[in-house]
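[job 0417] fold request received: GTPase Der
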Amino acid sequence: MTKRIPTVAILGRPNVGKSTLFNRLAGRRLAIVDDTPGATRDRKEAEATVAGRPVRLLDTAGLEEAPPETISGRMRASSEAALREADVALFVVDARAGITPADRAFANWLRRARKPVLLVANKAEGRLGGQQAMEAYELGLGDPIPVSAEHGEGIGALHEAIAEALPAEEQAGGAAEEGERPLRLAIVGRPNAGKSTLLNALVGEERMLTGPEPGLTRDAVAVAWTDETGGQVRLVDTAGMRKRARVSRGAELEQMAVGAGIAALKESEVVVLVLDARLGMDEQDLRIARLAEREGRAVVIALNKWDAVEDRAAARRRLDDVLATSLPQLRGVPVVPMSALTGQGVEKLMPAVRAVHALWNRRVGTGELNRWLEAAKERHPPPVVAGRRIRLRYATMPKARPPTIVVFGTRTAEVPEDYRRYLVNSFREAFDMPGVPIRLQFRATR
Ligand code: GDP
Ligand code: GDP
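[job 0417] inference complete; emitting structure tokens
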């Protein structure tokens, strides 16, 4: 099955700036822009990237001015065809000209189409433009999104709005709804770190084996329970990870690192990495943590066997050093010292898991995000590469789980790794997201 690229159709009466917007979104000059109303053009089509996702853009062009309250046959035919194919329609109005009877007729027709429609108030450049755009509220198609296709203003917010309106990206299992779904947790770590003991401490008597999970490996089981906050938890566990360890401890990590363990890690939302505090964090632990980060999972470290540690301050310092030097991609990862054996500190684990899960799910609004980008650039401007400055114009956050930011600009392919890291850390600090993998991508605009 090939993955279908969603279609975004640009609709509206002539001269509102559809072609200009099309070019702006497509990132290149494709359509012919002409300010003669009704200039004949072919329908234009382009592939574009909107907030990090590929989309197919349709520009409906060559429409005649419709008589008030009706839509002329040609207008309807062309728009209908595009709308049929569209997953999302961008209905463009001219904020400067104001709402015309033709806009109203168009809006009435669109409202009946039962497709997601975004109302785009174009030509809203400058301070006045934004206010003029508000007039479009009267169309009853929701909040107008003020943009200036010509000057490239408001495009980030438009990207964001399109991303929100697009059908959800296909996911394994097809579950799109969030609702009260249990938090998916994986407890991982080296053999003998105390995973089984911790699980028993968490779940206690109510522990329930719900049998093989479809989609996981043959050995996988799920343990479901309700934590002390009343939240549902589903432990994505693999029988192999724990039970087989009893037989051959040495082989366990290998097995974890391939196959079953990876499946559990990928299926989970939050990974609890259990460490033996007496031994600290070694290469194997780091490998697991890095894998979790690469898979985009949120991580909490359970610093177990705390009861058996003599110099706690030194143990903690050692761990912090390793985390700082060897796991910068999970900066600030929460660490919960505990004793799974005595139960001490175990009660702090689930609140930490819930907190990091919430951050992992968090969406940052476009306004806030762009204020951050401006401030970050000001503090530390993008470097000059080969005599030319990299320009970063705006950012969007097309998705969470893990937080994913797309920064648009020019010469973005040349952004050095240390500047990318600077932005990630700055974002992490600004929005207080410790322990969460953060994805930062760059996209070139014209
Ligand atoms: P279409 O007929 O809807 O495709 O509109 P065009 O894209 O051909 O644009 C019509 C006219 O509006 C052209 O003169 C554009 O330069 C102008 N235009 C497009 N976008 C903007 C904008 O954001 N601000 C201003 N002031 N003019 C714009
Ligand atoms: P697993 O292989 O990671 O599942 O580890 P287990 O849960 O089987 O624990 C391995 C050993 O460590 C057992 O002997 C446990 O009793 C012991 N253990 C687990 N948690 C603690 C703890 O918090 N403190 C101490 N002192 N020992 C622990």
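[job 0417] notes: Residues 189, 191-197, 242, 245, 304-305, 307-308, 339-341 surround guanosine-5'-diphosphate (ligand 2) (CB under 6 Å). The longest strand covers residues 391-399.
[job 0417] exit 0
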